[in-house]
Amino acid sequence: MSNSTSTPRIIAENAVSIPPRAKKSNYPEPFASRMQGREKRALGDFFGLTRFGVNLVTLAPGAESALLHRHSRQEECVYILDGHPTLVTDAGEFPLAPGMCAGFPPDGVAHQLVNRAARPAVYLEIGDRPPGDEASYPVDDLAAEQADDGRWRYRHKDGRPY
Amino acid sequence: MSNSTSTPRIIAENAVSIPPRAKKSNYPEPFASRMQGREKRALGDFFGLTRFGVNLVTLAPGAESALLHRHSRQEECVYILDGHPTLVTDAGEFPLAPGMCAGFPPDGVAHQLVNRAARPAVYLEIGDRPPGDEASYPVDDLAAEQADDGRWRYRHKDGRPY
């Protein structure tokens, strides 16, 4: 099967057959190590999509989706497929279950998923990729901005680089 | 719970508790009637997201997701939650099952999901909303372009309006 370019491209796949990302996290230490129990399969990237990401994420017991954060521009949405992660926000905590979804407009509540259950949690995360995005972290000494090349640059809150 | 604006906003919900769209289809007749077995819940819109849509779609037995189509600019992705819809494309047909996903870069294969099974099919569809998008329909006498106001305008292939 092929699309209109000359490169044959797979157009349907079992999501769990798509290899997880080798690099666990872009965060600097000590934050990267906290993401060891998180596994992401980049479904959208696999199919050649570029303007938004659709990731199949598995959180082992005890793992977290990200540091508590909010984006200045990116829109985010999650849909729970399995397990019972907790949505932790700076406006309260909400237990999630399969079939539940959550959405995060830019500059809204800070948020993260934390898996406090004994079984893995599995969900889809969707986010667009607007230029000039920034992420802020209410709890951790971290600030992030996206450079023109799309890469995230991390600083301490006082401006010092990591 | 509220975000940084003054309007309280729900940030997590059971997807099936979000009401389905009242209007079944934007297509002109005779195509709109073909979409009667399709039900869409606009999850992303519910949470105030604007730049991409995340819809929970149910296809009754016999129903189809859309006419066979491709977009000039929109990126699309689907993730099957339940049931066994068939991915119909102009490059062949592919049986889908829960846990499978498919992605459609712009100007790729024309595609639609058709539920030939005896049970409903349920899936998430994700698509961004780039300006100036057009949709083409290899099988049906239809051409669509998005106006500056975001609305789709439909014509016959010879240019006559519907």
UniProtKB/TrEMBL annotation, chains A, B:
InterPro entries: Cupin_2, GPI/OXD, RmlC-like_jellyroll, RmlC_Cupin_sf. It comes from the Bacteria. CDD domains: cupin_SPO2919-like. One of its GO terms (molecular function) is metal ion binding. The keyword Iron-sulfur does not apply. Keywords: Metal-binding. The keyword Metal-binding applies. Residues 56-126 form the Cupin type-2 domain. This is Cupin.
